[in-house]
Amino acid sequence: MRILLVEDDPQLGRITQIGLEQLGMTVDWLQRGETVLTAVATHQYACLLLDLGLQTMDGMQLLRNLRRGNRPYQGAILIVTARDQIPDRIAGLDEGADDFIIKPFDLDELAARIRAACRRSHGRLHEVLQHGELTLDVAAREVRYQGQLVVLTGKEFCVLQYLMERHGQVVTREQLEEALYGWGEEIESNAVQVHIHHLRKKISKHCIRTVHALGYTMSTDGES
Question: How many CB atoms lie within 10 A of CB 130?
Fold first, then answer.
């Protein structure tokens, strides 16, 4: 899961970025609100974490621009702020935020709220994805095939989650790279193919189908 953190406090921003990355998320971090619209227009984010108290731009106006601009952002937006007044919460939710989190916050709770907001955006009711004999627990970061635990790397888990959330769709290599890698991360040209190869080896050679010249999709039962 790739998210965008908008936080102008250097210490809090770095702590939040590191903490969420340790929980398996890919986190891009911006300190200036003026650059957010460009980032959202050029990258695919599952979720935005938005501080209202930005020094160079009003966070509420930025939220309004994200939801009402020429290309409205469709993903989840969580306000993370020190403002704890009820009118601020009401205004943020009415402007399109999916949740309102008061600083200081517990990192595990923040991660849970991110998962919940992203789950709702995908129309899911719970954190467990099921595909045939394959199950993926987003919260526990646990995968089982035919009842047996499958040990995956962080990137392998993210690839499988991305594909399972889009079952029935063909996902391109570029889309997977966007979901897996943040700014500054070096991407080998065959990185996605390697992750797919390892998933087939660890789960089943038939679990993911290659669609020639297009990308990948979860196989239906019995497909090879």
Answer: 11
CA–CA distance, 35 with 31 (Å, rounded to integer): 9
Residues 137 and 156 in one domain: yes
The number of distinct structural domains making up the chain is 2
Which one-letter amino acid corresponds to residue 161?
A: Q
Residue 51's nearest CA partner among 94, 2, 105 is 105
State whether 90 and 143 are in the same domain: no
The model's pLDDT over 113-130, given as tens digits with 9 standing for 90+, comes to 999 898 887 666 678 899
**Length of the chain counted residue by residue:** 224
**E strand or H helix at 2:** strand 2-6
**83 phi/psi in degrees, rounded to 5:** -70, 120
| Domain CATH code at residue 35 | 3.40.50.2300
Angle among Cα 62, 80, 121 to the nearest 5 degrees reads 75
Phi-psi category of residue 144: left, alpha or beta, with phi > 0 → left and psi -120 to 50 → alpha: beta
Q: Determine the residue type at 33.
A: G
pTM: 0.77
**SS3 for 120-168, per residue?**
HHCCCCCCEEEECCEEEECCCCEEEECCEEECCCHHHHHHHHHHHHCCC
pLDDT tens digits for range 68-77:
888 889 889 9
Contact 76, 117 (CB under 8 A): yes
